[in-house]
Design goal:
By secondary structure, the chain is an alpha/beta fold. The chain is about 40% helix and about 20% strand. The chain is globular.
Length: about 425
């Protein structure tokens, strides 16, 4: 056990079983610790297992291998010193605000009178005085999340876990609540000794954390760590913060892009987790990037500001542009390739032609669909075999999302068509018998 460590994970692994009984590795070989007095932010793309890791620490699920411990003791179920704030607020709608906040105290066996005093004090700290008797439906999203945070803090936890706690809020509300939590932390108005945050927001991570941990995907494992020595409060527009934001963007966009045609492509290439980006989003980012003031090249943080897209939506679009050979990502910057420049100036028909060519060249599941359709006498096939192929390594929910993207991209690029009612793929202009 490391000195002053509140949490420690050693060689943690976790798998989930897909619908066909095949296990899918979500986390592998994760070593992690949270020290007293430290705020750590976990970043990672879809499939990196961030939320799974948080639930292992919270004692909601157990690891398949390795150990997870709190203050030197193995975590077996929820620990009294660990509390969690959820993205979805997770309030009971039939309970009042005060009753929701009291739940953890009630579970600990605290008498009712003492619960009410403690809950009211926490509601006052979270600027919810006067709302103790209200129902959650009477509150705004920001106020409901304040209730969720009050419920977590009222038990005086050593460790506070925050799972995308601000992502469901509008930007201004999220930033305000984030700053208030930091103020409570710095001023020691809360007894919490360590905070672990799962986030998609890079600037949020830089503004809050003492250390940022970046997870790789499929399976999730720690890829990079950045220590942040900047004093608080931090100024979002300061040079030091912008340099760190750029550095994290660069690390987050580092990825080897699979390529090749499917006839020679092994299954491991067909299980690629396609970016969750529709064609309109991809083209919207490309068009913005091609125009002034960017003129084909942009700093990703600035592009995020111009598009108004959160990182969780911008990254997939940029990754798709890179995957299709229309842009290249390097050290937190994105630039259009010559083909991307040509695409930006093309009419709709030429765009579809380029998109289809690049899709069949660089996306194995798409070229697999096209190749098998061409080898099928009827020119049609059900989608199920392709879904099963991707499900082997991605799991059913992610495989469905990836196949939906592949179908949308293929239809736009006129590589194949899809009949929603029958669930069948077919060659363009191919009529089923």
């Amino acid at each position: 056990m490391k000195e002053n460590a509140l949490l420690e994970l050693k060689d943690v692994a976790k798998s989930f079983t897909s619908a066909d009984g095949v296990p899918r590795l979500v986390l592998e070989g994760v070593d992690f610790s949270l020290a007293e007095g430290e705020i750590v932010s976990l970043l990672g793309k879809s499939g990196s297992g961030k939320s799974t890791l948080l639930r292992i620490i919270a004692g909601l699920i157990a690891p398949d291998a390795g150990t997870a411990s709190y203050r030197g003791r193995a975590i077996h179920g929820p620990a009294p010193g660990i509390a969690m704030v959820f993205q979805s607020f997770a309030l009971f709608p039939w309970l009042t605000v005060r009753q929701n906040v009291e739940l953890g105290l009630e579970a600990q066996g605290m008498p009712e009178a003492a619960r009410q005093v403690r809950a009211d004090a926490m509601l006052d700290l979270m600027r919810l005085s006067g709302f103790g008797g209200a129902l959650p439906r009477e509150l705004s999203g920001g106020m409901r999340q304040r209730v969720g945070i009050a419920r977590a803090l009222v038990t005086n936890p050593d460790v506070l876990l925050m799972d995308e706690a601000f992502s469901a809020l509008d930007v201004m509300t999220g930033e305000t609540l984030r700053d208030e939590i930091l103020d409570l932390w710095v001023s020691k108005q809360i007894p919490t000794k360590g905070i672990l945050i799962v986030s998609h927001n890079i600037e949020e991570a830089v503004m809050m954390a003492d250390r940022i941990v970046i997870l790789a995907s499929d399976p999730g494992r720690i890829r990079s760590e950045i220590s942040i020595g900047l004093p608080r409060p931090r100024i979002a527009e300061s040079h030091e913060v912008r340099v760190l934001v750029d550095e994290v963007y660069g690390l987050m966009t580092m990825r080897a892009v699979p390529a090749g045609t499917v006839e020679a492509a092994p299954v491991r290439q067909i299980d690629y987790r396609l970016p969750h980006a529709g064609v309109s989003r991809i083209e919207g980012v490309l068009d913005l990037l091609a125009d002034a003031p960017f003129n084909g090249r942009a700093d990703l943080p600035r592009l995020s500001e111009e598009t108004g897209l959160p990182d969780a939506e911008l990254f997939p679009a940029c990754e798709a542009l890179g995957l299709l050979g229309l842009a290249h990502l390097e050290q937190g910057d994105i630039g259009l390739t010559p083909l991307g420049q040509r695409y930006a100036q093309a009419d709709h028909a030429l765009r579809q032609e380029i998109f289809g060519q690049q899709l069949l060249t660089h996306v194995p599941i798409a070229s697999s669909i096209r190749a098998r359709l061409e080898n099928e006498a009827s020119g049609t096939l059900p989608q199920q075999p392709f879904l099963a192929l991707m499900e082997e390594n991605l799991g059913l929910p992610e495989a469905r999302r990836a196949l939906e993207i592949a179908i949308e991209w293929g239809r736009y690029g006129e590589a194949y068509e899809y009949d929603f009612h029958t669930g069948r793929l077919k060659l363009p202009d191919q009529e089923e018998e």
